[in-house]
Design goal:
Largest sheet: 9 strands, mixed
Number of helices: 11
Order of helices and strands: HHEHEEEHEEEHEHHEHEHEHEEH
Number of strands: 13
CATH class of the largest domain: Alpha Beta
Shape: globular
Low-confidence stretches: 1-46
Number of domains: 2
CATH architecture of the largest domain: 3-Layer(aba) Sandwich
Distance between the termini: 73 Å
Strand content: 15-25%
CATH topology of the largest domain: D-Maltodextrin-Binding Protein, domain 2
Structural class: alpha/beta
Amino acid sequence: MKKKLLSVMLVGALAISALTGCGSKETASDDSQKTGTTTEADSSSDAADTSDFDNSEMINVQSREDGSGTRGAFIELFGIEEKDADGNKIDNTTEEANITNSTEVMLTSVAGDEYAIGYVSLGSLNDTVKALKIDGAEATAENIKAGTYKIARPFNIATKGDATGLAADFINYIMSDEGQKVIEDNGYISQGSNGAFTSDGSTGKIVVAGSSSVTPVMQKLIEAYKAINKDAEIELQESDSTTGMTAAMEGTCDIGMASRELKDSETEGGLTAQVIAMDGIAVVVNNSNPMDEMSSDNVKDIFTGAVTTWDEVAK
């Protein structure tokens, strides 16, 4: 009887040990996921987890401020801006939109909000957000060149009258083989060049001001130019397209930057514009959003407030 009892106790202990072992393995697996330890399943894909995305949630629309060239081009290209009976342009962006005042803030806002949607310059796009295909076309420089991705606009610089001195020399650099290579290398589309660059050695200081979308590539152009003309001093002021054009008209900057076509009032104010590059506008969502593409009509409906939740977006 004692032997039988000992045998039963031993079997029970072994069963408990086996169960405990199984539990330990499961816990270890859970812990490895919690602590970020790579498992076989984890290593098979680097894609963001979209499984918890709730399609019934409200769409958090992110737009740019009034005066932004990116906003101006975006609402025009998607038909969000329309003319009234008197021919006046009306911006129909939903009043529920959160307004961001720069490219950097837009990227941060969308990256930090699972249910957000916004738009940025293609050249400023990074992996903190996901760019959607529009009407089946991916937002790439190659597709803009091919004409399949149609959400594109010009990058303009403008001066009051003809540029002279250092401003003229810098503009000559921008439009040279070397300057347009900087533009291409940073993900924008060259508009052709004026040949190889030779500086005239101009010195002094100029101010370049305006669009936050143009600013990143302008910073690269300034750095490359100053490597050639070391005596040049160029101050870069980031704001928006309208502010840049106003500053150029008023003479508070030497070169204005706009990420759109110039308005009639700006050319009538004495500004001479030059396209330095073409740029796409990428419609972006959070990386956890399972959606990969939209139609142009989808985008318009979202940004005008006709569609307010993710499950309303047409497939």
